[in-house]
Design brief:
Layout lengths: L1 E2 L6 H12 L8 E4 L4 H8 L3 E4 L16 H6 L1 H17 L5 E3 L2 H13 L4 E5 L10 H13 L3 E4 L2 H5 L9 E3 L20 E5 L8 H13 L6 E4 L7 H13 L7 E4 L4 H6 L1 E5 L10 H8 L4 E4 L4 H5 L6 E4 L2 E4 L2 E4 L4 H13 L1 H18 L2 H16 L1
Parallel strand pairs: 1-2, 2-3, 4-5, 5-6, 6-7, 8-9, 8-11, 9-10, 11-12, 12-15
Antiparallel strand pairs: 13-14, 14-15
């Protein structure tokens, strides 16, 4: 299993949960990481052998930098060395199958696995489209998908659709699963009623849209507790600093709570009255949304990418306000529209019985649809077929 980072983003959390559920009598797992961090510690705690190789800083390269042809050209020598290191690990471990768990991992594996004469599978956690990635990078990755992996495992139907016409070896959808036992404990009766966002702080995650919606709500007299849980990762530190400065410059937003990075995300979710997901660009999946649903927390989420598959799995959405629709598991809002987001949050506050009933349905559905055991079953089948 190859990952470019040791940090815990959505793809890495999915990998860690999957690794814990894989049948270890049938599969001997080794991980190769380009950097250390909590992912490495989590894998080691599961008893999985970890090989770390020097990423030479490529693991920190941003999507913005990928827009520069000069930067990409300068990366070629380091990329070649990284491919050689990865090839060495694959050969030394006598791997029957190589699994790439990120875009950067896939780019290196696409060369290293064939050199080692080993088949590989791509676990795809990103939409391969120009609205999500730089055009040149999206084009490169689509080419890799066309000729490289034996199978692609996508984290949603929306993600799979971005490569459906390209990959001939088969694309399988395996939703990132949850460990049900982590959510078995009911929500605490004394939850503090906060309305919050949980996750990495980034321009693509919607914290700015959330703040704009909070400003509208506060101006309308809805002086609730609003909270942003999480911190910037990778290249987003400057964005977070700018966002905090903006919040301090607006009187209504100075009351917004910022928790910073939290190790126990599930406990933070349990405290919320409402989970807000506000990504202005289509999300490939939406890990935090299913986590909130599993914890019994009502959700308001952006209606794009893989989110509608989660919140309205039957495809039925009823309009309740401009830019706002209700699915069986929560509310969906037009992405990037702060006014619609404010309207959705206000509607949720005005209809607590409806939201609580939806949260209970969502909790039941989530524990069946997104069980990690089902994810592992699908993935194990793909791995067996791909390694033959």
């Amino acid at each position: 299993m190859v990952s470019h980072t040791g940090e815990l983003g959505g793809a890495e959390i999915a990998l860690l949960r999957l690794a814990g559920a894989i049948d270890r009598d049938a599969f001997e797992l080794t991980a190769c990481l380009f950097a250390g961090g909590p992912l490495e510690r989590g894998l080691v705690a599961l008893g999985i052998r970890v090989r770390r190789i020097d990423g030479e800083g490529l693991e920190r390269r941003t999507r913005t930098e990928a827009r520069s042809a000069r930067t990409m050209l300068r990366s070629i020598p380091a990329s070649q060395r990284l491919v050689r290191r990865l090839h060495t690990v694959i050969a030394q471990e006598h791997a029957d199958l190589v699994v790439a768990n990120s875009l950067k991992a896939a780019m290196m594996t696409a060369f290293a696995a064939p050199i080692a004469r080993r088949p590989w599978v791509w676990h795809l956690h990103d939409r391969i489209t120009p609205d999500y990635l730089p055009v040149a990078l999206a084009t490169c990755l689509r080419g890799i998908a066309l000729i490289g992996p034996r199978r692609v495992v996508a984290n949603s139907r929306a993600t799979a659709a971005t490569l459906r016409t390209l990959h001939k070896g088969g694309i399988v959808v395996a939703y990132p699963g949850i460990v049900g036992s982590e959510f078995d404990v009911p929500r605490p009766a004394g939850h503090d009623g906060a309305i919050g966002m949980v996750g990495r702080i980034s321009a693509t995650k919607g914290q700015r849209e959330f703040l704009d919606a909070v400003e509208v709500l506060m101006a309308a007299g809805r002086r609730e507790t609003y909270r942003i849980i999480g911190a910037a990762l990778f290249e987003d530190g400057q964005f977070e600093r700018g966002l905090r400065e903006y919040a301090q410059s607006v009187p209504e937003l100075r009351e917004v709570e910022w928790t910073g990075w939290q190790e126990d995300v599930i406990s933070q979710l349990r405290l919320l009255r409402l989970l807000v997901h506000a990504s202005p660009v289509p999300e490939p999946f939406g890990q935090v949304v299913i986590e909130a649903m599993a914890a019994g927390v009502p959700v308001v989420a952006a209606q794009a990418g893989g989110i509608p598959e989660i919140v309205a799995p039957d495809g039925v959405m009823t309009r309740v306000a401009p830019g706002v629709a209700r699915g069986v598991c929560g509310l969906l809002v037009r992405p990037g529209d702060s006014q619609a987001l404010a309207t959705a949050i206000g509607w949720a506050l005005d209809h607590p019985e409806v939201m609580c009933a939806g949260a209970e349905r969502a909790r039941t559905l989530t524990h069946s649809r997104f069980a990690i055991e089902e994810t592992a079953r699908i993935v194990e089948t793909v791995w067996r077929e791909a390694s033959m």
